[in-house]
Amino acid sequence: MAQLFVSDLHLEDTRPDITRAFFHLLDSLQGQFDTLYLLGDIFEVWLGDDTPSHCADQLADRLRAMADTGIRVFLLHGNRDFLVGSHYAARCGAQLVEEPVLLRVAGQNALLMHGDVLCTQDTDYQAFRNMVRDPTWQQAFLAKSLDERIAIGRHLRDKSQQSAKEKADYIMDVTQAEVVAVMAQYQVNLLIHGHTHRPATHSVQLNSGAGTRMVLGDWYQQGWYILADDHAAELKPFPFTAAI
């Protein structure tokens, strides 16, 4: 059997085509994997497990049905859905895990991450990340009313989008030195992540030899996934037209 990796679905109720495409991918690969890893930014925005969302309900039902058949489902936080909690994970029949995740993929020691911590040159974002990942900040935020959280979320999203327009592309990409340092720290020769929306397979020169960095793309115009067995891992696109 095999492992399926997906990142940056950015599900939202205004884009039912993304949900439909992802479910079609799961249908098309039925019986070909026994473990599913969703590596963050599963949702475009997540303001707490009590936030009403049709696509979140649909995903929970689908993942729970998969889990009931014996497929293991793991969820990682991304920069847009870092507030996904244990209540929603339980609805999905999934395990919420903190990065970095160490495991064997395609016969190699591998590391799973969302990928945002690798973008060290984006110092403004890293400062913001440190703030919102603080348990005290999260507790205070989740204690606010849903209307307040929605208003704050919209403000932060608008601010983030404006900030992104003003930054050079390289600032929002991973820092190569950080990639090498992280892979060396955890003694892996395969790194899988998302976040940057730049799907590709990169060679990484490590002191221990050649390594590989596989970047999952976002699901805006088409899907991306990695399917890995004991021998190989391959990054593949998935056209939305396949789900029509």
Give a description of the structure.
The protein has a single domain (3-243), classed as Metallo-dependent phosphatases (Purple Acid Phosphatase, chain A, domain 2), CATH 3.60.21.10. The longest helix is centred in the middle third of the chain and has 20 residues, at 146-165. The protein is 34% helix and 24% strand. α2 crosses α3. The two termini are 28 Å apart. The strands form two sheets. Strands 4-3-2-1-10-11 form a six-stranded mixed sheet, covered by helices on one side. Strands 5-6-7-9-8 form a five-stranded mixed sheet, with helices on one face. It is of the alpha/beta class and 244 residues long. It is globular. The mean pLDDT is 94. α3 links the parallel β3 (72-76) and β4.
- The CATH class designation is Alpha Beta
> What would you say the CATH architecture is?
4-Layer Sandwich
> Count of helical segments?
7
Overall geometry: globular
Side by side, the strands of the main sheet go: 4-3-2-1-10-11
SS-based class: alpha/beta
The biggest sheet amounts to: 6 strands, mixed
Q: What is the share of helical residues?
A: 25-40%
Question: Low-confidence parts lasting 5 or more residues at pLDDT below 50?
Answer: none
Please report which band the strand proportion falls in: under 5%, 5-15%, 15-25%, 25-35%, 35-45% or over 45%: 15-25%
Rg over CA atoms, rounded to whole Å, is 18 Å
On the 0-100 scale, what is the average pLDDT?
Answer: 94
Q: How many distinct folded domains?
A: 1
Query: How far apart lie the N and C ends?
Result: 28 Å
Q: Assign the CATH superfamily.
A: Metallo-dependent phosphatases
> Which fold name is given in CATH as the topology?
Purple Acid Phosphatase, chain A, domain 2
Number of extended strands: 11
The helix/strand series, from N terminus to C terminus, equals: EHEHEHEEEHHHHEEEEE
